[in-house]
Predict the structure.
Amino acid sequence: MNDQLEYMTGQVAKGTMTRREFVGRAAALGVTAAVANTMLANNAQAASHGTPIRGGSIKIGSSGGESTNTLDPALTASSVPLDNLRHLYESLVEVSAEGDIIPRMAESFEASADAKTWAFKIRKGIQFHNGKDMTPDDVLKTMQRHSDENSKSGALGIMRGIENMKIDGDNLIVELGVGNADLPYLMADYHLMIQPGGGMDNPGAGIGTGPYTLEVDEPGVRHGFTRNENYWDADNRGFTDYNEVLVLNDATARTAALQSGQVQMINRVDPKVASLLNRAPNLSVQSVAGRGHYVFIAHVDTAPFDNNDLRLALKYAINREEMVDKILRGYGSVGNDMPINAAYPLFDETIEQREFSIEKAREHYAKSGHDGSPIVLRVADGAFAGAVDAASLFLETAKAAGIPLEIKREPNDGYWSEVWNKQPFCASYWGGRPVQDQMYSTAYLSTADWNDTRWKRPEFDAMLLEARAELDDGKRKAIYSKMGTMLRDEGGLILPMFNDFVDGVANNVGGWSADPNAELMNNKAPIKCWIKDA
Amino acid sequence: MHPILKLIAQRLALGLLLLLAASVLIFAGTSILPGDVAQSILGQSATPEALANLRRELGLNDPAVTRYFAWLGGVLQGDLGTALTNGRDIAESLGGRLKNTLFLAFWAAAISVPLAIFLGLLAVRYKDRWPDKLISAVTLTTISIPEFMIGYVLIYWVAIKWRMFPSVSIINESMTLGAKLNAIAIPVMVLTLVVLAHMMRMTRAAILNVMQSAYIETAELKGLGMLKIIRKHAFPNAIAPIVNVVMLNLAYLVVGVVVVEVVFAYPGMGQYLVDHVSKRDVPVVQACGLIFAAVYIGLNLVADIVSILANPRLRHPK
């Protein structure tokens, strides 16, 4: 089938087959229209990849920006501040599109045999935007700022496993209480951007070692960046002279700006319009399967959700295919009630997919002995795009199975502080993490702050710690598989779908490549791409 | 003291009192919103200890009354404080946003107010004939369509199809006046279409009302021309209701255009306020609320005073 598709994309490129024909025939081969369109776009991009061109400017129209944003990496939590971080700062290491660790501010790193002591060798000859040399001391201070219990850093949870940090020559030594084979993935966290003096004096100054320096900073409106002529890795990043991130929170405003050529890239294309937008002549819609997932979460320690048969009834009563089809319009894949999918390293493909089954749902519901009182599901569209619609679909299929589901609509405003992680059954969204360990430790460890399903199993915790210190991939995979299956069959997580990242890119942008870590090539598109006609 | 001066002084004092009451209401409103600042700043990814730390740092543990009076004292000295969320000086960031909002409102008003009054007069002149019906039909249609819809339709044709004006109206200090006007062309069109009908209909109704009075008939019988009658006899007596509705629409152009700001990504005060409300940034919300309240009260004050001056009965009270 792959040969056939490849042959066909070639024909489209040559002009002997139209886009419409291609999508039609690809569908005959079992490929959805969304995927087929992306294949075509990728093919066109690959053909024109070529060498980077210097000059010109890229404007990014991005949602997720507010006038309350700051350039402090510790407080970064949404798309626009992330775009800003990638321009200005760099971290010790990064996660590549393939899921490997690539050294950045660290030149190399190595672990002791028990994965308890790690040494990161700090790269030399790199300067901050203010002209000062980047030293191991700056790195240490950065890590200290983020691990300070008084800090407001979003990386505080990650840093808690670290017992001690010190400088040894050119190395940053990190000592852990419990061995962790995935520590470099944690150090790639986007909060942990290296700042002069650790950013202790003025964390929002925007001074880093990144490929661009700060030119304009108007939170909630725009952020402008000029190329850092001193950049150490100029062969691979920072091709344009000037980049600008425009805050366009309205989905229609974003697509209009891309269509009229005022911006070259936009994030979060509404799946409802993605295939229409893809027909526009001067741009393409790029989608990549990620680790983010749309979920309904139940507290397993609260009645009636403390009954596993009831949980299973709910899990069987959800029509995953329909949701991917109607909510994500094909830009996504079905979930299996565990937060891990094939985008993660060490994923076990053999775990059986849970299928939609009214009979099984009815069977488990009867077994649960639920008294028939309404089961209240709280939703708001702020939980994830289309959450209210998804809940309605769930309601219909649950009704068919005789489950008395009831939807309570909550306001978007205050949803994350008043409903999520407080109410026993609600809709939510998880962005995913680069590795399984981090995903499980963030939300499924007994002691995790965000254990939003109240999943507290000592045997699960033990397996997690065992896998963490295990350096043998085969053994780790087996443990993760067991954990995933356990969560799938007993957990409070109902996971109908994983969403794709859907971006829009103008055709004059070169160097685009898929990156499943986050939208817009892990927010690095503006620093890695170039303008072909610059 | 002249009775008019006294009346105006009374109005001003009432306005200030109203403003104070509004500030209390705004503060109470922001206090009872669900969720708290720390949670909203740190978002979904907040850990309990980070929350507790931030809450302490922001002084959220003080009683509300203490915080209110501390803030009010600052405002009276011209200090609006700093934003809780990003530590910026509120007066400074707000100043730029307010300027943008007034810039957009000014140009929308400069086009829509004369146009509305002109169309209103035209409708009176051709009452119940096709120009009157056409004007009413068109303006009533545009006021009935939600403003974001008009915005999208104009973006589609003007920005994407014809490429005449940009769909993103982000302006900044370094732009020339021409560039700024080019950037805000489409939002000005939208706002004009939205406010036109209200003012036009009121102009038409007010003048028609006067035109049916006996003294207009007398003027006609004396042989005065239609235009002169409208200008000298009808318009002065119709000014009060027209000014009232014009002021209401000006106030709307300043405080009510958040949807238009979002659609065109215009850096005005509406979006600024909404961002800070969702982050529970009380000082900023209060500052914005106070400015909005001041604009509303101020413009209504102007409308009142103009009506007083235009009305001989109020100008010369017995």
Notes: Confidence is low (pLDDT under 50) at residues 43-48 of chain A. The longest strand of chain A covers residues 283-298.
